[in-house]
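Hi, here's the filled form for the chain we discussed.

Project: internal
Contact: R.S.
Residues: 183
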Amino acid sequence: MTDKNDLLRKIFGFLHGSQRLARHSARPYQLRGQHRVLHVLAKEGSLIQSQLAEILDIRPSSLTELLSKLEDRGLINRTPDENDKRVTNVSLTDEGKKAIESDDSSSDDLINSIFDGLSDEEIDQLNGLFDKLNGSLKEKLPARDERPDGFPGHRHHHHGFGGPGFGGPHGGPHGHGFDRPRF
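And the returned structure, exactly as it came back:
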């Protein structure tokens, strides 16, 4: 029987190695920060800033900083809501859409190279196994707003996978889910 500790080390080694490969690629597929914002907006469309912070699971102040940088680069627009001036709508510009399209083609190449060693059947099997593992793990995790000490309080901000199933609906473009786990 396989040593489960050794298997877990191999999984984390694979994640670490794939992230290193991404960082060292000619056009790195970045998994955090500005690129995550662009990919969420590309998938979800225009969002209010508070919705975007919730989806990305980051503090509003951190998001404001990211959005300022993206706006300075001409990749997003921030506009006050017509009905409620306290609400800010965030959307991609044409330049932002072009940046996403460019990222998508280079990220597809990177993803294909990561899984080069597996057949389509093996990829399907691996996908099914991770679905089972993630489902089992999700059942054991406390609610996201639950503090370890049992007291209600501020929400914990984890930097990691963008939703259920480690990279679920917001974990990356096309649902590939390359991000860190929420532990």
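Let me know if anything looks off before we file it.
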